Amino acid sequence: MDPLSEVLALLKPRSYITAGFDAGGDWALELDDLTGRIKCYAVVKGSCWLTIDGNAPVPIPEGACFVLPTGRTAVIGSAAHVEPVRSSVVLDPDRSGQVVTHNGGGEVYLVGSRFEARSPHLELLLHDLPPLMVVKTSDDRVRLRWSIELMMEEFREPRPGSALIAQQLAHMMLVQALRLYLAAPARDDVGWFAALADPQVHAALAAMHADPAHPWTVRELATTTGMSRTTFAERFRARAGETPIAYLARWRMMLAAERLQHSDDTIARIAGSLGYESEHAFSTAFKRIMGTPPRRYAASVRQDRLR
Question: Which of 167, 179, 248, 281 fits a disulfide with 15 by CB distance 3.0 to 4.6 angstroms?
């Protein structure tokens, strides 16, 4: 798989609530349900404002899709000055597959989903993502617009299987929004997602993801991008926030953790499959990056399964 698909596969985003939201008048909600979750919504009618961590409010116009990927405090409303109420008080937690009307409705209409990210790597993968990603759904964004319109249709005319179809469309909407953001990211973004948006750095990431066991060197990775070793190393660090070899080591450990959690492979087998010549070298790297030795990690995973 390509790097974005692999990362999303590790995150295991599950559509927890897929719904429509119809609001009117002056309103504001403090989104207090974001921890460990990703929100992806499209504004199909009207407009709204989003404030992240108390920073300057950001206008979200009609026809835009936004993703909140990091669980930071967020307020959404009709205007930046409206005093918010907690969304957990206003919104029914079992509203999936429905359209929620707030404050009379009729002025702003959103559709989308809240995803549970069921992964022990959540913090490692999401901590350096932009706190807010906004993309347009108009112009040539045909696939994104298609999934949104189909989702609206399922809400307007519920039929057998509508809830499941809406959930599947929500996954398509999330991936399409991320792809479009990658095509035109903010210039000051830093992290693995920003690195994916850089075509040359992306080439190096794709090479590492395609063969994580290969003994990659900075020079060899630079060759895949068509840049000199020095230029590539500087550019990779500026985009990803870490060196290519540090990224490779972290990605290997996430793959190892996934196998410790979901397979019966021995530590020696996992170590060899990821390019480590000895179990000791692998265990040292795993503890340094994941914070615990692989045997202890595997034991804790087994205990969690029994709970």
Answer: 167
Give me 68's structure tokens. 């909140």
Contact 227, 235 (CB under 8 A): yes
pLDDT band at 165, cuts 50/70/90? confident
d(CA 28, CA 77): 4
Residue 159 vs residue 94, higher pLDDT: 159
- Three-state SS string over the chain comes to CCHHHHHHHHHCEEEEEEEEEEECCCCEEEECCCCCEEEEEEEEECCEEEEECCCCCEEECCCEEEEECCCCCEEEECCCCCCCEEHHHHCCCCCCCCEEEECCCCCEEEEEEEEEECCCCHHHHHCCCCCCEEEECCCCCHHHHHHHHHHHHHHHCCCCCHHHHHHHHHHHHHHHHHHHHHHCCCCCCCCHHHHHHCHHHHHHHHHHHHCCCCCCCHHHHHHHHCCCHHHHHHHHHHHHCCCHHHHHHHHHHHHHHHHHHHCCCCHHHHHHHCCCCCHHHHHHHHHHHHCCCHHHHHHHHHHHHHC
- Given a contact cutoff of 8 angstroms between Cβ atoms, the answer to whether 96 and 18 are in contact is yes
pTM of the model: 0.81
Q: In this structure, which amino acid lies at residue 238?
A: A
